[in-house]
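We modelled the chain as a single entity of 421 amino acids. Its sequence is:
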Amino acid sequence: MPPIQLQIQRDFPYWIAVLLLLCISCTAFICFKCCCRKRYKSFYHRLGDEIVFSDSQLSEHQLFAENIVKNLLEIMQHLNTKDHPGISEDIVGTGSAFEGLKVKPEIEFDFMIPISIPYSYRSKFIFEKYWIPNMYGMIGVSKQWWSRVSEVINHQHPGSFLDKMCDDGYLSAKAVREWFQSLADRAANMLKKRGIDLKLLQQGPARTLKIMTSGEVTISIDLVPAVKYQNVYLVAKTYEGYLPESSKDIVWRLSFSVQEKAFLEQKTLSLPKNACHKKALQILKYLKQEERNSKRSPPHWCTSLSSYHLKTLWLHQLHKTPASQWVNILLRERVIELLNHLIHSLESKTLHHFFMGNAELIKEASSLHIPTRFLKDGLKYNLYDEIHYETMNQAVLQLKKLKKHIDLNMENILSKPSAKC
């Protein structure tokens, strides 16, 4: 037998052993990576399950909140006078509790309360003036012609509604807030006499009711007066940017809450079963909540960014990401992608409102019940306009650090009792 062949035969068991060892090592490494991947994914899915209310819990609290609001509005209507706006009982539930996006532990419900000007007046909605910010409008108010004639014939005092609720012929957001606050307070005091344990707070344009239920659960209810315009609403929210002092009280902020809910409902129909889209946003909201509550000096990104900033970013991602990428197993990837988009938006100092100036949605305007005038190019509104540049720079650094240790952060949060409350 030739020497070379003999050498190969001698070494043959050795090479088999080497190959087997390599195969076992590769298999073990792949299994280890898969286990780590599954372990991290389990953190995300477990947290996603633990930070949300069950449907039955939320439904029970929602019915309670709606009943309180309807009783309050009934009293407010009784106390109201004809020279003030009318109050509708057709309340509009808005926000995370009505969109399946609520996270624990706070139980909060937001309602828009439609109001209307007296029938003897007419209104005109104005959005095109050059100095009005894109997300805002004005509501012009004037007497109906027949009402003027009636006043002259009957020697009535003209324009009491104009005197009390308007400024230079425009409905005053400030006057409406003060009137609504006063009326709600009086009505709430009457509810207290019926044995309902509640407190009242003013938060921005909302009047907030804090109610203790018989089960020792505190429920927060935000009531925001709103004027309807072609299926969108204008709310009495103060503009924080620069405007002449004489104009700050007469601009009203547009609310697309109804359209956001409709978009989410339609989008959900096209996504895979048990899609992870809602959990991705809920986890980011919960991370923000935990970061803000657990540190003596909360990070800039928690204090300067609202839940609405996160939701807007998520709506853009939901619109652009293919439906197949929202399968449940990709929850971790979607959370990290959402963080990446948040970091990028802060670096570019730009986060456009999802509807204003979004021409990509014009074809869907009818199904979303939104006037196309608000979707035209040139009407974009940057939600970061009211945040200082340096604050955004600091937020970027903090979010990059959060992202670097995201899996460890998830594990730490899961180990806290607060995640299981």
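As a brief sanity check on the tokenised model: Confidence is low (pLDDT under 50) at residues 4-8, 29-39. Residues 3-50 form the longest helix (48 residues).
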